[in-house]
Amino acid sequence: MPRAGLDPAAVVAAAAALADEVGFAHLTMGLLAERVGVRTPSLYKHVGGQEDLNRRIAALAMSEAADAVGGAVQGYAGRDALAAAARAFRAFVLEHPGRYAATIGVEPADRDDPMAVASRRLLGAFRAVLRGYETPESDVDHALRMLRSLCHGFATLQAADGFQWSADIDESFEWLIAFADRGLRAVAAPEVSSPAPPR
Amino acid sequence: MPRAGLDPAAVVAAAAALADEVGFAHLTMGLLAERVGVRTPSLYKHVGGQEDLNRRIAALAMSEAADAVGGAVQGYAGRDALAAAARAFRAFVLEHPGRYAATIGVEPADRDDPMAVASRRLLGAFRAVLRGYETPESDVDHALRMLRSLCHGFATLQAADGFQWSADIDESFEWLIAFADRGLRAVAAPEVSSPAPPR
DNA sequence: GCTTCTGGCTAACAAGATTAGCCAACGGGG
DNA sequence: CCCCGTTGGCTAATCTTGTTAGCCAGAAGC
Lengths: 199, 199
Hints:
- Chain A is mainly α.
- The first copy, chain A, contains 8 helices and no strands.
- The mean pLDDT of chain A is 92.
- The first copy, chain A, binds a DNA duplex through loops.
């Protein structure tokens, strides 16, 4: 029996690709074994089991997302950077729905968990976007959570086919980018915001 | 052997409650059977299987969310309505993480699917919020998707412990409501938005 | 060439979902 | 009140999937 030449990284990469193809929920050890040309139990020589595999897929996905967003932002600032980051993030989730799904519900064990490291990297990419808006320090954390919620929410809802009604989805996403852009500019310069009614 | 007096609604309600307690991923037919005081195979007299059960839990959750948001909005308009809707939605997800998790990744079969009906009801509640902002008809669909993405994203990220860093989460959510409020007012009256720099 | 470690394999087991088939309990009509 | 059909429970058995145990060949270093 010739060796298959596997290692943990190759197994995880194959698992992530398979998850993108068949959906994270349908990713099974048997299917993965077949894909990499090995019997099921052999996988356990490389990963600790399904739980461990999920965590590794999640870490890979988060790291790739951070690369995608970080790379897309390079050389842009302000609205252009925001648009590039948001589009890159959504594109990543839509191209890799399976591996991104693995990130949902995985809480990192500690700060050195690869998943936690990758999450911080992704966050850093979004933080770079905010620098172009000169967001006040006191608002940065909130704005980051807002951006992450918007992107995560939109992408996962679309990936899950959660938008049933008919308006054009790409158009909605561009509208959303414009909305966030206007809002972030207002945060940086609150004095120009519309005069609030008594309430 | 005395009858347990079950029916599909009771089984689904018990399953939803159990999912909230142990987490949707740990909801098992055996656990559910134990909870309702019956042997596992008996459940199949009331629901078609795990897939069917998940869909029913999702429909229940969506319907309850619609009720919560719809009820919270009553009697408010503008920013108050927006805040009430957003808080009600988030509170629902945090109080019922298990059943809400069931809604992720369930795409309704057709327009009469209970899940689809409930989703439209939830959407209607958010649409009512927009009426208070006099959002132009052409922007309503986009704004609805934005609101849904924001609320869904924030609530699911928090439920999954996805916000690792330290800033206060309630405070972030209130900030987010204020952000959406300012933005929606600007959509209704675009002439007061901050003048964009040339780029 | 020997030895050691690694990565494959088969066999076996455990947990969970599901199906088949039986039988008691409830409910309505004689 | 009794009969009978339907319903909802049960046990037993099957299938899928994850996982562990234990064996053995191939690769790598001496």
